[in-house]
Amino acid sequence: MAKYFDENKKHAVAIIGSGFSGLSAAAYLAKAGCSVNIYEKNAEIGGRARQLIGNGYTFDMGPSWYWMPEVFENFFNDFGYKTSDFYELKQLDPGFTVVFGKNDVLNIPADYSALEDLFESIEPGSSKQLALFLDEAAYKYQTGMNKLVHKPGLSLMEFADWDLIKGAFKLQVFTSFSKHVRRFFKDQRLITLMEFPVLFLGAMPEETPALYSLMNYAGLKLGTWYPKDGFGKVIEGMQQVCEAQGVVFHPDSAVTHLKVNNKIITEISTKHEEIAYDGVIAAADYHHVEEKLLDTAYRNYDVNYWEKRVMAPSSLIFYLGVTCKIDKLEHHTLFFDADLKLHAQEIYKDPKWPTKPLFYVCCPSKSDDTVAPAGHENIFILMPLAPGVDDSEALREEYFDLIMERLEDYTGVAIRNALDYKKSYCVKDFKADYNSFKGNAYGLANTLMQTAHLKPSIKNKKINNLFYAGQLTVPGPGVPPSIISGKVSAQLLTKYLNNK
User: Fold this and answer.
1) Rounded CA gap, 329 and 61, in Å?
2) What are phi and psi of 450, to 5 degrees?
3) What is the residue-level pLDDT of the chain in tens, covering all 500 positions?
4) Cα–Cα distance, 371 to 351 (Å, whole number)
């Protein structure tokens, strides 16, 4: 047991899962004086942010948008580091590109005055509307990031904060995002541009609180960034922070059971062994932990609860290596040359494979010559998809051809004839690799009834020393919220251990 525990530390803690929330929780617990072990079911550390390497290409398997850079900086600062100690950040310009048609393309500039000019060229007077919209969004962002996201959501009384009460109207929690955007803009392209982040938050714009215009502030004002060599470098940096404090990693070590005695987890089981711990943070899929690792009597929620949750989308993803350069692609390109509302309905209202899908293309080789051989392109294609739908190789190939026809028509390049690497990833893979509930890619939808204390609880209500972290609990889906989730859960477990 000596290889697992530091005898000079009072408490031993197990973390289940090594994604962003698990790494964050481990680092903060180790800093607080705990002996920490991370158990990861896969051979690689990083959860959804693992990298895929093949034929000279390096693909980020999951996250590719680096927004809210201060959250990453704050994490490393808490341990005496800077992001630049681990990776090089580059601001993208354009931050991203939106394709409405072959000759109808918006490049979203990094410079705000250029962004105002772009809006004005589309809809006269909209630059002033943009300023008003982003002023409101800035308040939501500052309030949300400084106050709301760090609350564990265990009680409504957490929100009995005078600043929050005063600003409740300005936060627009009960206002529809869709109606909010249309107060400011009339041109459908601008409306779509402002609504696009919501597609990944997990609900129709009509059912998402206007609070989430804070995402527009993050993307349009704070900028879109890229860590050189990809998101894998962020994971490596967080892993190094953990290891510097003595955290021990156990890859290929799926946790199979949590033994409970007198409302306390006393032991965790893996396929290799059974080990005693003083506390546990479950940073794996919440539903999987409840249904597969805990006996029925100790679960926060039953099957009916989970079936009623509104999940964010799953995804069909293709990782492609292309033997030529593709001039018309930028680092991030969103294809909105189809009906956003129809695609959203076919994710959230009438779950099915989409009739005419929107999709997103990431081409990091535009910004980074290390991720593809010289003269080649590295392409990641993502199509949002309803969670839980049937997933077969035949369907994947059908949609690959459908997407490629539109992409090849737009770029003028016969991409399918220039492939030297191809791998797909979809619902079955999310389930197999991450035990993901219904194969979701983005966690729980950010609807009003699944916000703050209405999300699955960060604390197990029947077990004193079990807490949860990640995209199915507070504060919600996305990389920055997951990092914060790990910190909040670590603080709660530290408080419990110190007071017991």
Assistant:
1) 19
2) -130, 40
3) 445 788 889 999 999 999 999 999 999 999 999 999 999 999 999 999 999 999 999 999 999 999 999 999 999 999 999 999 999 999 999 999 999 999 999 999 999 999 999 999 999 999 999 999 999 999 999 998 988 899 998 987 776 675 665 666 789 988 999 999 999 999 999 999 999 887 666 778 888 899 999 999 999 999 999 999 999 999 999 999 999 999 999 999 999 999 999 999 999 999 889 999 999 999 999 999 999 999 999 999 999 999 999 999 999 999 999 999 999 999 999 999 998 889 989 998 899 999 999 999 999 999 999 999 999 999 999 999 999 999 999 999 999 999 999 999 999 999 999 999 999 999 999 999 999 999 999 999 888 889 888 999 999 999 999 999 999 999 999 999 999 999 999 999 999 999 98
4) 35
Gap between the Cα atoms of 286 and 290, Å rounded: 6
CA-wise closest residue to 277 among 47, 24, 497:
497
Supply angle C-alpha 230, 236, 238, rounded to 5.
Answer: 115
3-state DSSP call for residue 161?
Answer: coil
Q: What is the pTM of this model?
A: 0.97
**Distance between CA atoms of 402 and 338, rounded to whole angstroms?**
13
Counting Cα atoms < 13 Å in the Cβ hemisphere of 162 gives 0
Q: Are 418 and 324 in contact (CB under 8 A)?
A: yes
